[in-house]
Every structure is written in C-alpha cells, then in structure tokens.
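Hi U.,

Before I forget, here's the chain from the pilot set. I'm dumping it here mostly so it's searchable later in email.
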Amino acid sequence: MNRAIILMYHIVDDPRTEREGRFCVRPSEFDRQMRWLRESGYLPVRLEQIVDCLVERKPMLSNAVAVTFDDGFSATAAHALPMLQAHGIPATMFVVTQRLGRANDWMYERGFPRRTLMSVAQLRELDAEGVTIGSHTATHPRLTEVSSAQAAAEIAQSKQQLEDTLGKPVRYFAYPYGLYSPELSNAVRASGYRAACSTRAGFNRDGENPFALRRIEVLCGDALWQFNQKLRFGTNHATRSYPLRYYASRIAARLGL
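Structure:
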C-alpha cells in the first residue's frame, strides 16, 4: 500500500524512574526493532523522501518508514547511532537549540529525571554521520500557550541557530508536545521549513499536509508483536484485540451498520 510511517522516539536508554518509562526505549529493544524493521519488508527511508512525495505530489512510497527522535538527548545519540549504522537505517534528530549541552529543564521541572542533551560537538558529529538534524524550537515551550510573536521567534531562531552551527539549511521541524494550530503551521512554513512533524498517530498518505505529518510513538516495553502491530495499523495503541476490533469496524462500515 502507498502509505508511509514516521516513528517517534525520545530517549534510547534504560528508564531511570517509572514515570520516565514512557519516553524511554531500552537500547536492546531499539536494536531488535531496527533489526526487525530491516528484515520485515519495510523500506527504511530518510524523512525527506516522504516529504518529497507530498510536496512534489508523487505517489507515496510503499511501506516506507522514517525514524525520528525528539529533543536531542546525549544518551539517544550514544546508543542509537551505532545501531542505526549497523542496520543501515537513516534517521532524523529534532533538537532544542538553546538547551544543547545542558539539561531537559522542561521535563525536570515536572518531576522527571534530569538528563543531558547533546553538545554542539556531538550535534556536529551526528550531522557528519548522515543523521538529518531538525528543529524542536529553542526552549521547548508549549507553542499554543505563548504569544504569536514568541512562538514565531522559537520557530525561526532555532532554525537560524542550527544553520549557523551546521553550515547547511535546516528544513524540518517537530512541534513540542505535538501542539500545533493552523497559525503555527503557517509560522513554520514562513520561517522556511519544508515540513513539520506532529504527534498525531496514523499513516502518511498521498495528500497529507506536510506541516502536520503523522507519527507513531514507540514506548518502553513494546514487544516486537506490538511494534509490528503499530506499523501495520498506524496506531499508538497495540493490543491483542486491536486487529479484531479494527477489521470488525471495517466490515461494519462497508455494510453501513
């Protein structure tokens, strides 16, 4: 089928607390998922290849999967990059520019463990290794809860900071917390980005809005059958009963029930 999936990860590391667990995928789990992805008939692609299809109105790539990471944790870079390279899988890292080399204040203030974000040197190393670098704003605010001027500055300034650091265009953006609106999407477009990722689950099909791309969240403890089911059905919620309920609803819809 001509539909593409974008996977969303945050921290590739062992969780330090139960609360942090949702945002962590253990390195051993990540390695199994990347191996399975490479061997199971899916097509690992760069995010830009999916965006190319949407922007240039080409048929969507069949069973394409792009891997993305939010925030730019140093642990994620250290654990994930060798595995991505080993399995030949490209990826995109969305970073919080004014927190490079510092900590995840927006999480620590809410009771999560303090974690270090990548330094500028680590960011450049990741870029040199072929990982696409995108923006996740300057300070990780809730863009729908700040003024239009502040939101526009977060979006534009982070892009400029990354371009100054890397010496190349930065074309992709991810909304913090997945919060966006038509006005914010317009601000992202006006700042010169080519596309933006949300946290809405689902497949990206022909005609999808490139400034509200859908992503599937991978959680700590997702078994391979859950990982498989998420990709197969384009959902964040993998359960033993989900396929039965999905096909029952499809049959009911066709019958007009």
